[in-house]
């Protein structure tokens, strides 16, 4: 059965980066942002919180998903994967808040999910009043606003601090190595932008997805109140349930391909290119390549000290001069493959 994610209190930046992040395990940072004015307003009343948030709204349109009540708010596919089960619209934050207030308590209400909007773009000034106590200002805040909505288990390739501002959130997390038990949907066609698990862990169908029981046995869960923060290490699968008529979360991604101005390229691209190159090979060759990949991906710099320093090439530092040459080579390979495919039509 799932275990409760451990929680920490009165965390300092030094403690977080020395004692928590290196564990590469989820952690609840209890009350870390409890002194935010936004959190204080939400704890007082929904109306006060809405008034507080609206004061920052500059009218910037925010990508918003609308789901019919019969979806139970679970962002997912249409039957037979023929599209997604929501409509995508654009609204300012004030309009979203007004609709959430009007529909509160209605079982037939449309489910609403404003997704991952940059706070500085749509709510300028909010971040300066509600600052992250652990991360530098270069890590940008994003806001998630809606009612009772479930995002299926998915992963991000960056570390994540998820700060609950209003309402309650329930998180179910799975270690990265459980990917084979989660029944992942299409890699290049997902309702959330990243691949999702097809298993609804709020009401799992073990007969249809028998391997998911193994993932469930090692799952970690947490319910967060306003002011609580969840640290989600990169690559951990997480299902997120919003449990209130007005639910707001701010999150911060860093150390990955999203979140900051110096974000790196996503390794997801390398996965797809590798699949393109290797999946047509015989099983024995795929296994051999797996050993080669494992060797070079797990190696440390001193593993290659048998080579002269000026001959390390791509085995050298991350910013080695050959990076541009490698990118050009990859682009040429993809272009040649595209031309070959065209010639076969």
Which properties best describe this structure?
alpha+beta, Jelly Rolls, 345 residues, 2 domains
Describe the overall structure.
It comes from Alkalimonas cellulosilytica. It holds the Pfam family Cupin_8. This protein is α+β, with helices and mostly antiparallel strands and 345 residues long. The protein is built from ten helices and 14 strands. The chain has two domains: 3-254, Jelly Rolls; 267-344, no CATH class. It has a nine-stranded mixed beta sheet. The chain is globular. It starts with a strand and ends with a helix.
Overall, the morphology is globular
**What's the CATH architecture of the largest domain?**
Sandwich
Average pLDDT figure:
91
User: Could you please say which CATH topology of the largest domain applies here?
Assistant: Jelly Rolls
If strands are numbered along the chain, what order do they take across the biggest sheet? 2-3-12-9-14-7-6-4-5
Given as residue ranges, the uncertain stretches (5+ residues, pLDDT < 50) are none
- Could you describe the largest sheet, including whether it forms a barrel? 9 strands, mixed
Portion in beta strands: 15-25%
**Care to count the β-strands?**
14
CATH class of the largest domain equals Mainly Beta
Structural class: alpha+beta
Helix content: 25-40%
Question: How would you name the CATH homologous superfamily of the largest domain?
Answer: Cupin
Please give the count of helices: 10
* Overall structural domain count: 2
């Amino acid at each position: 059965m799932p275990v409760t994610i451990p929680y920490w209190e009165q965390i300092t930046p030094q403690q977080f980066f020395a004692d928590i992040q290196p564990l590469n395990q989820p952690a609840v940072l209890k009350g870390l942002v409890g002194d935010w004015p936004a959190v204080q307003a939400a704890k007082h009343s929904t109306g006060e919180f809405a008034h507080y948030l609206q004061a920052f709204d500059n009218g910037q349109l925010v990508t918003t998903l609308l789901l019919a009540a019969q979806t139970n708010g679970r962002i997912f596919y249409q039957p037979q994967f023929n599209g997604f089960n929501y409509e995508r619209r654009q609204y300012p934050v004030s309009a979203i808040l007004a609709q959430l207030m009007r529909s509160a308590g209605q079982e037939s209400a449309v489910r609403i999910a404003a997704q991952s909007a940059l706070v500085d773009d749509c709510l300028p000034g909010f971040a300066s009043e509600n600052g992250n106590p652990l991360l530098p200002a270069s890590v940008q805040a994003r806001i998630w606003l809606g009612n009772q909505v479930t995002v299926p288990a998915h992963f991000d390739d960056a570390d994540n601090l998820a700060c609950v501002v209003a309402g309650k959130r329930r998180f179910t997390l799975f270690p990265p190595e459980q990917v084979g038990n989660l029944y992942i949907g299409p890699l290049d066609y997902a309702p959330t932008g990243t691949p999702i698990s097809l298993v609804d862990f709020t009401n799992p169908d073990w007969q249809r997805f028998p391997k998911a029981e193994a993932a469930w046995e090692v799952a970690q869960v947490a319910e967060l109140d306003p002011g609580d923060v969840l640290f989600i290490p990169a690559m951990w699968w997480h299902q997120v349930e919003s449990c209130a008529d007005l639910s707001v979360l701010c999150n911060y991604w860093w150390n990955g391909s999203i979140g900051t101005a110096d974000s790196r390229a996503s390794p997801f691209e390398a996965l797809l290119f590798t699949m393109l190159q290797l999946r047509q090979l015989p099983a024995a060759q795929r296994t051999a390549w797996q050993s080669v990949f494992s060797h070079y991906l797990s190696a440390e710099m001193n593993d290659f000290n048998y080579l002269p320093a000026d001959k390390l090439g791509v085995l050298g530092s991350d910013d080695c001069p050959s990076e541009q040459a490698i990118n050009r080579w990859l682009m040429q390979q993809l272009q040649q493959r595209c031309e070959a495919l065209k010639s076969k039509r």
